[in-house]
Amino acid sequence: MILILGGTTEGRMAVRVADEAGSPYYYSTKGDLQQIVCRNGVHLTGGLDAEAMIAFCRSQEIRLLVDAAHPFAVELHNVVAETSEVLGLPIVRVERRYPEQSDNIVWCEDYDDAIRRLIGEGIERVLALTGVQTIGKLREYWQKHTCWFRILPREESLLKAKEEGFSEQNLVYYEEGNDFALLEQLDPQAILTKESGESGGFIQKVKAARQYGIPVYAIKRPSLPYESVKVTGEHGLRKQIELYVPGFFPLRSGYTTGACATAASKAALLVLLGEKESQSVPITFPNGEVLELAIAKIKKENGSVSATVIKDAGDDPDVTDGQSIISTIRFNDSSEIRFIHGEGIGKVTLPGLGLEIGGPAINRVPRQMIERELSALYSGGLDVIISVPGGRELAKRTFNPRLGVEGGISIIGTSGIVRPFSSEAYIGAIRSGIQVCKAVGSPRLVINSGAKSEGFLKALYPKLPPQAFVQYGNFIGDALRIASELKIENVTLGVMVGKAVKLAEGFLDTHSKNVMMNKGFLKQLAAEAGCSESAGEIIEQITLARELWVLLSYEDTEKFFRLLSARCLAVARTSFPKGRLTLLLLDEAGKVIKAE
After folding, report:
1. Alpha-carbon Rg of the chain, whole angstroms?
2. Would you state the torsion angle of the CA atoms of residues 174, 234, 291, 61, taken in this order, to the nearest 10 degrees?
3. What is the rounded CA–CA span in Å between residue 419 and residue 99?
4. N or C: which end of the chain has fewer CB within 10 A?
5. Residue ranges making up the domain that contains 83
């Protein structure tokens, strides 16, 4: 079991991550003002002292503390530290992202230091953006100087200010995006804020003050009283939960080939520039997180350096899992970063992927990740040669041949993270397939569920190019939405009865984990179609939807499946509202019922 300490933006993120697991957990906040839905967790409210938290963790068999509380929640951090020490529990700190401490900000160690500096530097009018809980801590200043406090527009905030004896006329209420107007209205000599990070609006406050030429005094965030692993986003948090609480997530996440190639490229360049070899390197992921990937091998040869990362796909059945992703870096005479074919990397032969025809199949996001890491280290020209030994054979088990990528695999990934049985990866492959279909000028896109249905459909459309046929798996809705987004004018949707009975009921994702065959719906459909009474009895007895093709009478078959295909088409049109959509309902032998 996991205990998350939240009440912040970071706490919301931690809940999202925990909910993905489908496992129970606890989410604790001091008050009950944060409106949050914990799908699989229990939301606890009310602050816990060390004794209460220790007792709770013992009774609920807590195995991991996730501290996602505010950086200035000193009392809570101390409680977490004591609980961890007494029970030997690991702590993962969900940290905010902080900009570097700029020299043109007056940094204060604490509130007393801020008061001394403000008074010593003759600041008579201050706008305090430190929150209602800090009014008492700044009493020495506001009793003798003009001070405004910006607080949240809540009754409890106003009551707290009154309890501290602060004048209500010097209270201003928080309005999102109102920093500039507030400074113009009050004309303070300085603003006082806390080092609250990006999610605390620190950057926006500083930007507003600088525009008006107002100095910023900032109170540094306090040091944490415990040792912990620090993460700044969803990927890192999930990785740490997987490490400390095995089994919380049914399946482990992994890294994309793009992330592995990026880490290998950075490690190779560091050694090429004279740095020591490292067992791991940090890289920045597309969502801004920084995570470290292990380096398996470094090799220096003929003015170049090669680094190897072993691809870990987690529990996803990825064909590249366990393969060596190698990046060789060498200087070139240009000022550019050039990507060059390496062993096992495919060559792009068709348009539609957004990559140069004839170039290496290294997708856009991995290129951007590699370029960002290398450019931060070196401003000159570099050759980047990505290779995957055995990639030519691996590619035969991927979508690459039908996408026009020949001779090897692609370096892919939009997030840097592989989620087990990743819908994101599959939908990405659907998008690529439809883009290629459009780019080769096919007059029709034919989407289908898999090899069997695709074989039937290719026989119906023998003149279409191979790229016209794209498999949607279970993601009918996503395939149609992508086709609509890409302005495909003519789409055929081939569907077999097992998915059709789910689609007709309104489910555009037909995976069995999300929806099962609904016999009640099918009996209602049979009645609406005017089928005989025996049709309902047959439906009640079936185990698989495809049994309907052989068990229903000829008359009932015609009536039932024509209405079923019409309902499927109506549901499908909600995701493809423009253009011509044809639906072909297929039986096990390839017989077709058409709706359009």
Report:
1. 30
2. 110
3. 29
4. C
5. 2-97+226-244
For residues 328 and 387, membership in a common domain is answered with yes
Domain count, the chain: 4
Q: How far apart are CA 273 and CA 268, in angstroms?
A: 9
Residues 303 and 405 in one domain: yes
Q: What are the two backbone dihedrals, phi and then psi, of residue 547, each rounded to the nearest 5 degrees? A: -65, -20
Give the integer Cα–Cα distance in Å for 377 and 77. 36
Which residue did the predictor score with more confidence, 39 or 489?
Answer: 489
Distance in angstroms (rounded) separating the CA atoms of residues 194 and 88: 32
Are residues 300 and 166 part of one domain? no
Locate tokens 């209205």: which residue?
185
Residue pLDDT, tens place only, 158-201? 999 999 999 988 998 887 766 677 888 888 999 999 988 887 78
Dihedral over Cα of 590, 591, 593, 596: its sign: positive
pLDDT digits (tens, 9 = 90+) for 235-289: 999 999 999 999 898 888 899 999 999 999 999 999 999 999 999 999 999 888 9
Lookup: tokens for 275: 């740095």
* Cβ–Cβ under 8 Å, residues 409 and 398: yes
Q: CA-to-CA distance for 64 and 249, rounded, in angstroms?
A: 14
Lowest-pLDDT choice from 4-8, 338-342, 416-420: 416-420
Buried b (16+ CB within 10 A) or exposed e, 566-585: bbbbebbeebbeeeebbbbb
Q: Which two tokens stand for residue 143?
A: 């009793």
Quickly state the pLDDT bin for 26 (edges 50, 70, 90): very high
pLDDT per position as a tens digit, 137-157: 999 999 999 999 988 888 888
pTM of the model: 0.70
Residue 409 domain flag:
yes
Q: Which residues pair with 128 in a beta bridge?
A: 149, 192
The two three-digit tokens of residue 420, written as one number = 């087990």
| Cα 256 to chain centroid, rounded | 13
Tell me the CATH number at 148.
3.40.50.1380
Question: CA quadruple 532, 535, 540, 541: dihedral positive or negative?
Answer: positive
Upper half-sphere CA count for residue 583 (Cβ side, 13 Å): 26
- The dihedrals phi and psi of 305, each to the nearest 5 degrees, come to -130, 135
Domain co-membership, 265 together with 361 = yes
Q: For residue 93, which amino acid is it?
A: R
Write down the residue that tokens 């806390």 correspond to: 194
413 shares a domain with 332? yes
